[in-house]
Amino acid sequence: MIITIDGPASAGKGTLAQSLSQKYQMAYFDTGMVYRAVGLKLVLKGISPDNESEAEKAALSLDFPQMINLSKEADFRSDVGGRAASIVAANPAVRTALLKMQQDFANNPVFGDGTPAKGAIYDGRDTGTVVCPNADIKLYVTASPEVRAERRHKEFLAKGINKTFEEVLAQIKERDERDQQRAAAPLKPADDAIIIDTSIYDAKQVFNKVCEIIDSFQKKLEK
Fold this sequence. Notes:
It is a single chain. It is built from 10 helices and 5 strands, in the order βαβαααααβαβααβα. By secondary structure, the chain is an alpha/beta fold. The longest helix is centred in the last third of the chain and has 20 residues, at 203-222.
């Protein structure tokens, strides 16, 4: 079974995807990691993520061990890594270079230790529209910019990062616009995606709602 979960930043995709992968024992693929890896790879070399030719080279030379090493960098999950990822993700050449890596995982999903999995859960921006258009279940998880900014702001405060709510909201809106306006695979729900607005549900409610969807699908397969 292949499940895709797309949506904007801080909508709750990652939390949901990881919880589902544990419950259903499916492999988890955070596709944002490949773009963060490419973006941070450039930043660490002092190269602007806007440099399209260098970004393509970085994407073509990226492999999983390299991605894992980059994920240990302090800025991998910071705003620096997020902004760089969003910029390189708008580069068509980068997306083409990384697409095969992401699609191959659906054909041969494995856990972190390399053991085979019976399915995969994708967390990203275009997994239901581009990476796995034939996925069994497609979800689009979203929330208002204000709700997402509030969540991100609380995370920053907990980590001792001094940023105002207004600054975080502006960054959220900037990233949304960049993701939605990019020519290559703009952020949008697949035509057959189930849309879940986490502005009105907490994480547990969203998890339970999606479990009902998955359980219903599995029962149909058993008939």
